[in-house]
Amino acid sequence: MTAQPFVVDAKDYGRPLNVVGETIVVLASGERTGGYEIFLQRGPETSGPPPHGHPWDESFFVTRGEIAFGIGTETRVAKPGTLVHLPAGILHWFRFGKGGGEMISMTSRLGASTLFADLDREVSPTNPDFGKLVEVGLRHQLTVPQSAE
Questions:
Q1: Residues 62-111: tens digit of each pLDDT
Q2: Residue 96 sits in a domain of what CATH number?
Q3: Most Cβ neighbours (<10 Å): which of 74, 84, 90, 149?
């Protein structure tokens, strides 16, 4: 299939996915683009994923608030206007700061959109079962270090 041009207005957004308290809107899936994916991610204070890695590159552009990113053993706080790029396989995590925040994220291939849909469907956003979270992640080729389990 050849990817076709498309425009996504705010009124056309799909249902926001609730991934362990974080709201994720799929703006462009890999199925639609033929490759990369784009998301709008919003989270309340302290929300964010545990340390993990995956087989796709991922970039984040912070649009509101402060978001702490753990990259390997380093932690950086990103403010609006900051771009964070993570090559595939890099261990990372993030936490939305005081008052929550918002960012646009982009991945290098299809994968994250199906992961997020499965997490939305299978893991409670308010009382998540960490074992189930890891199980769903493993189905999508995520790596989670033993210390995070």
A1: 999 999 999 989 999 999 999 999 999 999 999 999 999 999 999 999 99
A2: 2.60.120.10
A3: 84
- Residue 108: give the domain boundaries: 11-141
Q: How far is CA 56 from CA 52, 105, 109, 143, in A?
A: 12, 12, 6, 12
Q: Is the pTM of this model over 0.85?
A: yes
In which element (H, E) is residue 130 found?
Answer: helix 130-139
Residues whose CB is less than 8 angstroms from the CB of residue 62 and which lie 6 or more positions away in sequence, other chains included: 78, 79, 80, 81, 82, 83, 84, 101, 102, 103
The answer to whether position 28 is within a domain reads: yes
Number of domains in the chain: 1
